Amino acid sequence: MRADPLLLAAERIDTPPVNPFDGLNFTPNPGPQSTFLSLPDENLDVLYGGAAGGSKSTSLLMYGLRACYRWPGLQAFWFRRSFPELEQSVLRMLARYNFARALGGRYNGSTHELRFSNGSVFTFGHAKNISEVSALQSAEINLLLIDERTTIPPDVVDQLYVRVRSGVAGVPCLGIRSATNPGGIGHSRVRAEYVDATGHGEREIEDGNGRRRIFIQARVSDTPQLGDEYKRNLQGLDEKIRKAYLEGDWGVFAGQAFSEWRYDRHVVQPVTVPTSWRRFAGVDWGYTAPWAVLWGAVDEDDRVWIYRELYATQVAESEQAKRIVAAEEGEAVAARYADDAMWASRGEAKPIATVYSENGAHLTAAGKGPGSRISGWQRVHSYLAEAPACPHHRALGWETCPRLHVFPQAENLIRTLPSLPHATVGNPEDIDTKAEDHAPDALRYLLINLGGGPSFPLFDAPEGNEELDQLLQALGPTVAYRPREDPGTDPWDEQDEPQRGTTRPSPFV
Questions:
Q1: How far, in Å, are 261, 311, 344, 402 from residue 373 at the CA level?
Q2: 13: how many CB neighbours lie within 10 A of its CB?
Q3: Helix, strand, or coil here: 111?
């Protein structure tokens, strides 16, 4: 049982400093650091993020030490992804401040706890996966501090948030304070929920728990003690690293997989998609993890226009199929390319692809084999690249435009694709599979099959010549139908495959 904090208050050091920062010989720098440390001791969710060298970690530590000193019986927890990172960062920093002895602190290296004479405890831990954080299942965290937040998987962060509360009278819940550089597995979510949601810190928002959410942008210039040499070192880095670490740019970061993405070039305002353009879909199945579907139309120059998106969690397979069919009402979609795993048997349950088919959404396997992930991501790169401008952009005076155009409705693709990091283990050309890659996976399935997969998907011909003729006219030359009377016939001779862009006569005429 935790001791009464009011009784513990009497045990504070005999001559406490009026200002705890004075006791630590610390003076906040003017600007963002002072702004961060001037926020009230309330249940807030604050992210201090951006450039390297902005004194973000120092600010977190100083806030935690001051909170433990101010509030008897406080339970504060500091997290990094791994213990080596913890040891090389905050624990070394804590030693420089003599383990806060001036504030009554006593550090226990075996438990990684800093205990104060007023009963407060500051615990330093690591959490890189769910199993590590599950050890804290019954913990009560009055103040949660997360350093280099974007390096920790978002689901791990969610589990830490669940434990932020106070069940002791007189001990406040001070919420969450985080610090980070751009980049890493959590970049996409952090950017969406803090940077973009607050207009890069121009306004505060309120989260689902009623906490005020605040973003403070960090810049190298915030820490004049670093000097010009530190800045020159950063200026000599690779462009992506330089923009993230020197400028605190949230649009690019070290390890970014698709740095060629540019919102102002790849995102276009919706246009009417001509009925003559071939339409395809990419499907990435999920239930607890997001389910993602993207629809793309291919124009006369083989550009792809992503014109629709579905993205949701906890939607049953049958309902997913029904939503796809409803979204496509009135249009002809040539093929829906989906994750091959959707054809796998799962105990007594039907394969997901079978459930889709029973509900009117027939699928084609995307074709996941050895090397297919890398080939798929390379195909995404090729479509993000520039080509001679399409008529739409020529009318705007552009000489070139990307081969991939995305309507704003595909908001989750727009959010997650530029935030994907390269894999840190395995093939460096791959994407970190722990990142939020569901919409990009759907895009990969779609693009890899445009000229790179089965060029002529075969479907059973519908009953009635009139319906068949309408479908063939709408779908164009890239889809063929197998006559019902001869199910073994391939209407296209493999040795007579046409070149891309040419037209073949219908074998049913």
A1: 19, 21, 19, 22
A2: 16
A3: coil
What would the two tokens of residue 371 be?
Answer: 């090397």
The CA-based diameter of the chain, rounded to the nearest angstrom, is 98
Q: Is the pLDDT of residue 470 over 90?
A: no
Which residue has better confidence, 10 or 203?
203
Q: How far apart are CA 451 and CA 177, in angstroms?
A: 49
Helix (H, G, I), strand (E, B) or coil at 143: strand
Q: Estimate to the nearest angstrom the gap between the alpha carbon of 21 and the chain centroid.
A: 37
pLDDT confidence of 1, banded at 50, 70, 90? very low
Q: Which amino acid is at 3?
A: A
Backbone region of residue 221 per phi and psi (left: phi > 0; alpha: psi in -120 to 50; beta: other values): alpha
Which residues lie across from 154 on neighbouring strands? none
Burial zone of 305 (CB within 10 Å; 0-12 exposed, 13-18 middle, 19+ buried): buried
Model pLDDT for residues 308-359, shown as the tens digit of each residue: 999 999 999 999 999 999 999 999 999 999 999 999 988 888 999 999 999 9
DSSP 8-state secondary structure symbol assigned to residue 226:
G
pLDDT in tens, 285-316: 999 999 999 999 999 999 999 999 999 999 99
CB neighbourhood size of 365 (10 A): 17
Integer Cα distance of 300 and 387 in angstroms = 13
Q: Are 245 and 219 in contact (CB under 8 A)?
A: no
Compute the distance between CA of residue 479 and CA of residue 471 in angstroms, rounded to an integer: 9
Q: Which helix (H) or strand (E) holds 40?
A: none
Q: What does the pLDDT look like over 31-70, one tens digit per residue?
A: 999 999 999 999 999 999 987 776 899 999 999 999 999 9
Summarize pLDDT for 206-251 with one digit per residue, the tens.
Answer: 988 899 999 999 887 776 666 566 556 666 656 666 666 666 678 7
Q: Which ranges of 221-316 would DSSP assign to H, the alpha helix?
A: 227-235, 239-245, 263-266
Cα separation, 87 vs 125, in Å, equals 10
CB atoms within 10 A of CB 472: 18
Contact criterion met (CB below 8 Å) for 252 and 259 = yes
Strand arrangement of the beta sheet that strand 304-312 belongs to: 364-365, 335-338, 278-284, 291-298, 304-312, 404-406
What is the DSSP code (8-state) at residue 201?
T
Backbone angles phi, psi at 110, to 5 degrees: -75, -30
* pTM, rounded to two decimals: 0.60
CA–CA separation, 279 and 327 (whole Å): 13
Pairing of strands 212-218, 44-50: parallel
Q: What's the rounded Cα separation, in Å, for the pair 56 and 184?
A: 17
**Among candidates 281, 292, 264, 291, which has minimal Cα distance to 405?**
264
